[in-house]
């Protein structure tokens, strides 16, 4: 049996899960306005290990959300994951945050567009098929009334951008699944197990989260 610890801290949701052969057996998470990852993450990990009835030495890998997302949140999650992997001498798996978010939309048609808030009308987004195949890689983009206008199939939007984006994304084939706001470690379970089976791991020493930092750089105001 393959037990994997999944860690998701890219957004306001501090989320951890333990999965057995790709199926979540326990998940603990909390989403707060103020980021509580530094205080909650290690406590949550200890709690779910205890409740699952396994030992940390039963883990075959640790999976962590690789971003994009909160700089601080990603650093906290990756640091915890690396520490466990070093201590236990097990591999580290990096999981795309937007793929995790998209996986929480259970649809049979159309496309899934996960979006995470950056600032103003800017978002981090990607496009996935209903089968969760990547159809457009991650972009940092400004959303306006022309965004996604060429798509005729149903587009399902998930993430924490619904409130600001639904005012401009108003086409009849646009559907906002507002109950899916943040990525969850529960959604990482199948993805991380698939990666583990393929030995799709990252270097524990050198892995860095995907911040998309260039997107946040703005030109100085003219004097």
Automatic annotation (TrEMBL):
UniProt superkingdom = Bacteria
> What is the name attached to this protein's record?
tRNA (Adenosine(37)-N6)-threonylcarbamoyltransferase complex dimerization subunit type 1 TsaB
Ranges of residues in domain Gcp-like: 36-145
Question: Pfam families from the xrefs?
Answer: TsaD (PF00814)
Q: Which InterPro entries match?
A: ATPase_NBD (IPR043129), Gcp-like_dom (IPR000905), T6A_TsaB (IPR022496)
According to the record, the signal peptide region is none
């Amino acid at each position: 049996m393959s037990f994997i610890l999944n860690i998701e801290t890219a957004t306001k949701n501090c989320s951890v899960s333990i999965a057995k052969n790709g199926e979540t057996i326990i998940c603990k998470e909390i989403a707060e306005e103020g980021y509580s990852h530094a205080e909650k993450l290690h406590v949550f990990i200890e709690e779910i290990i205890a409740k699952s009835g396994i030992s940390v030495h039963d883990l075959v890998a640790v999976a962590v959300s690789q971003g994009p997302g909160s700089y601080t949140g990603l650093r906290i999650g990756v640091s915890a994951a690396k520490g466990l992997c070093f201590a236990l001498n097990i591999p580290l798996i990096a999981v795309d945050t937007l793929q995790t978010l998209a996986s929480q939309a259970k649809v049979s048609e159309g496309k899934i567009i996960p979006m995470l808030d950056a600032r103003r009308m800017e978002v981090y987004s990607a496009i996935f098929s209903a089968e969760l195949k990547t159809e457009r890689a991650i972009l940092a983009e400004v959303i306006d009334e022309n965004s996604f206008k060429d798509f005729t199939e149903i587009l399902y939007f998930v993430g924490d951008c619904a409130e600001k984006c639904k005012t401009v994304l108003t086409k009849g084939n646009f559907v906002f699944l507002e109950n899916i706001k943040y990525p969850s470690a529960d959604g990482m379970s199948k993805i991380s197990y698939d990666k583990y089976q393929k030995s799709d791991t990252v270097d524990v020493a050198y892995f860095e989260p995907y911040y998309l930092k260039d997107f946040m750089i703005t030109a100085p105001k003219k004097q």
